Amino acid sequence: MPQIFDRSSNALARMSLVLTGLIVIALGVTLDQLQRSPWVTRQGQRPDQPVPFSHEHHVQGLGLQCQYCHTTVEKSSYAGIPPTRTCMNCHAQIWTDAQLLEPVRNSWYTRESIVWTKVHDLPDYVYFNHEIHVNKGIGCETCHGRVDEMPLMYEQNTLQMEWCLNCHRNPAKNLRPTSEIYNMVWEEPAPDRPVWCAATPDQMGVPTGQQVSCTIRNPNPGGSSAEMAGLELPASPAHGQAGAAPPAPVPSPPKYQEFTSQDQLGHFLLVHYKIRTPKDLTSCEVCHR
Ligand code: HEC
Ligand code: HEC
Ligand code: HEC
Ligand code: HEC
Ligand code: HEC
Predict the structure, then answer these.
(1) Percentage of the residues of the chain whose pLDDT score is greater than 70
(2) Is the dihedral of CA 157, 161, 167, 168 positive or negative?
(3) Measured between alpha carbons, how far is 217 from 256 in angstroms, rounded to an integer?
(4) Residues contacting 175, CB < 8 A, separation 6+
(5) Is the confidence at residue 237, as pLDDT, over 60?
């Protein structure tokens, strides 16, 4: 066999193979980083808005609740952006000649909605739903950050698939009582900051989240939950009456359990909110339908 290439070109070929490999890897890493960069995910950016609306002023300063403006967040997939009418509840009287509010007044007189630039915007092929998240004890702040400290709205988290999956693989660490979903400064339970929760039996038509009630004040008379467990209600008055329908079962008072760590609370809520397994929650069909 005649040798067309000598030994050195053999080494050269091997070298260029290695080089090409390295370049491909480097390119891959760069693209991957680019894909995760704030420039692509828009994380942290404050887009121009027709009106420089400040959540900090309206939420922290004036004490308005999120639901005052985002009225549908608990009952639909969308949180909703408030109509101009909501702003005019106050701004028909307050700051009526401020230049900043010109677009709001203009929208009111022309009846054309203000066109806000979306800050959070998932691709169309992803299914997302606010209702289920907030009714199963995920707080606004867990996903949107300290909105009450944002002079202008920005995206706190990437909203990339990995971010969603991270929680779906282990929701327990983020679950809180549904009474606390709007709380911007909720802290997980600790030995010096216990939380008491009680679950009532299943009721038709009541969202699972609302069958759990929690409190940060010790609800058990005398202190310990063990005493509460022994408590009994007086017998129903209907009991023993001839011809009367059989007495309705007397609901026993809910038993409050004390929790001193997120681990314990998370697992209790996981069970009583009936949250699916990580395997179910990370299957592709959950978010790509
Ligand atoms: C006085 C009305 C008002 C209140 C109260 C309010 N918001 Fe908003 N919110 C708006 C308006 C108007 C926008 C659209 C303009 C913007 O993005 O800043 C908005 C936008 C948002 C967005 C971003 C929407 C997007 O484009 O992706 C989030 C998230 C949000 N609000 C969360 C909250 C949370 C959480 C609370 C309670 C802590 C809250 N808001 C309270 C009026 C309000
Ligand atoms: C509950 C009453 C109330 C509602 C509802 C309300 N505002 Fe305000 N807004 C105020 C008050 C009061 C101020 C003055 C705040 C300050 O300077 O501390 C203000 C200030 C502002 C300012 C001036 C900049 C700033 O934040 O100080 C803008 C812009 C504004 N509001 C836009 C809006 C828009 C848009 C809406 C509707 C989505 C809205 N407001 C709804 C009461 C309200
Ligand atoms: C599990 C994470 C998560 C929680 C909890 C959550 N959000 Fe969102 N929110 C999102 C995502 C993701 C989007 C973008 C949705 C899209 O683009 O379709 C969004 C969008 C929004 C928007 C823009 C308008 C809309 O309806 O899409 C508002 C306003 C908003 N959220 C407010 C709230 C409020 C108020 C709460 C608390 C009651 C809350 N969110 C809780 C993840 C969350
Ligand atoms: C902080 C935790 C957390 C984050 C972040 C989160 N989720 Fe969820 N998600 C949950 C919990 C808890 C449930 C309720 C599961 C159940 O009831 O079995 C849920 C349920 C869902 C469901 C099921 C709805 C239904 O009706 O079956 C969808 C879809 C979903 N999430 C999409 C998303 C998407 C998309 C993102 C990212 C943009 C996301 N989630 C981010 C915790 C989270
Ligand atoms: C909890 C919700 C959730 C689940 C479960 C999920 N995805 Fe996604 N997926 C998303 C979100 C959100 C995006 C959009 C990411 C973005 O905008 O950057 C996405 C984007 C994608 C993309 C587009 C490319 C990319 O990475 O941005 C592909 C492909 C994809 N998902 C495939 C899958 C497959 C396959 C599965 C099952 C193994 C799956 N997804 C499960 C939420 C989910």
Answers:
(1) 75
(2) positive
(3) 11
(4) 136, 137, 138, 265, 266, 269, 270, 273, 275
(5) no
49 within ligand 2 shell (Cβ under 6 A): no
Q: Which residues contact 155 (CB under 8 A, 6 or more apart)?
A: 41, 42, 43, 44, 45, 119, 120
* Residue % of the chain over a pLDDT of 90: 63
CA 155 to ligand 3 centroid distance, Å: 10
CA dihedral 89, 146, 43, 33 (to 10 degrees): -170
Least confident of 44-53, 63-72, 264-273, 274-283: 44-53
Mean pLDDT across the stretch 83-99? Answer: 91
Contact present, 175 and 273 (Cβ < 8 Å): yes
CB 246 within 8 A of CB 175: no
Ligand 2 center–CA 66 separation, angstroms: 14
Residue nearest to atom 3 of ligand 2 (CA): 90
